[in-house]
Amino acid sequence: xxxxxxxxxxxxxxxxxxxxxxxxxxxxxxxxxxxxxxxxxxxxxxxxxxxxxxxxxxxxxxxxxxxxxxxxxxxxxxxxxxxxxxxxxxxxxxxxxxxxxxxxxxxxxxxxxxxxxxxxxxxxxxxxxxxxxxxxxxxxxxxxxxxxxxxxxxxxxxxxxxxxxxxxxxxxxxxxxxxxxxxxxxxxxxxxxxxxxxxxxxxxxxxxxxxxxxxxxxxxxxxxxxxxxxxxxxxxxxxxxxxxxxxxxxxxxxxxxxxxxxxxxxxxxxxxxxxxxxxxxxxxxxxxxxxxxxxxxxxxxxxxxxxxxxxxxxxxxxxxxxxxxxxxxxxxxxxxxxxxxxxxxxxxxxxxxxxxxxxxxxxxxxxxxxxxxxxxxxxxxxxxxxxxxxxxxxxxxxxxxxxxxxxxxxxxxxxxxxxxxxxxxxxxxxxxxxxxxxxxxxxxxxxxxxxxxxxxxxxxxxxxxxxxxxxxxxxx
Length: 476
Known about the structure:
This protein has 14 helices and 14 strands. It has helices at residues 3-16, 54-69, 97-107, 112-131, 149-164, 174-188, 227-234, 243-257, 268-293, 297-316, 323-331, 394-401, 404-426, 444-459, and strands spanning 21-27, 35-41, 44-50, 77-80, 86-90, 195-197, 206-209, 212-215, 222-224, 347-354, 369-373, 431-438, 464-469, 474-475.
């Protein structure tokens, strides 16, 4: 669904709650296909979401209601549209636990404030795992009800196919590795798993709202073991947490867990080192897919951190019982290895500008690109209600999308730009510039630049897209 259509749906949902949407802004995308928006109203703000995966949405709706009933700190679901692909929830700010950690890392030490937050979070984790498990219908979760042997094998194969195999210089026996993966999965499967497993319990999925942690992105949760979630938090590779702090926090987690059960009674420590391996291997598989395959910079930058964690853990707990996997780990690149960056792929720079101020500069050295003149199209700037708005605001988008001329223009642009992108990819060119100009660089040019940039991202996932709204001083 186009971005402006989503914003229109969210605006209608907001009005149905008795609130007037004053502004709707896109929230930066993460690793998922879901889209999030902050909706500012006269009473405050809400979070709007769009997800085409209805089954995943239904799991989120169910889990949110279930966790909310037992008093866990999760967003409040406010309203869902009839199609079940758009919904509104309470807003708990834009400060994640990871952002707090990043600020701590600039000082070179985990200070008392961040340690206190981490302790709060780990006190809440057993509540999800044990209280959240009670009465939960796992037939309503997504994509699977249980973290079982096939799920473990999927994580291990993810590592093999998306990180090991792209490195052609790593030599291994695939038959022996498959047998070891089966033994590894059988062993992991012996850990007690009659608990709720959050699945992606890491600091980017924990919001800090006035000092209190709120938890998001649990829609992939399922029945599973306790160890996976606490490993996911403590071994989040870019958090660079010292091992001494991990040990301290693990002790704190076990103390919170002891209110429900004795960790020794379920052999928690026996399986724990192998869950660290499983999580690190799964993470490298994800970074390989998003970074090595899809060429996304954030994931490429994260690979050395994961490799370093894996190297350190392997020195402490060598996999002597899994010689083929140990053989692969010994051949992995060193943490400071150099990878092909997205700059070796095609980058499309999309600009909006004012003809009064002159054409955009081309810093690629390729001599510019396409320049589309939007001045023959209906001008929202002539309407008083849009004077302070830009083409990134949903009200302006709604005005333009209702005009037949807009669709004719967009169809022509997509045809021309798409033909060039196809050709440039085939010829391994690395840059294309597409610019949209109007009188002031505020409404039409911004709308069309943003719309075409979104269209390129959706239809050419291997292409890196940079957006410059020159008159708005916005660069993405």
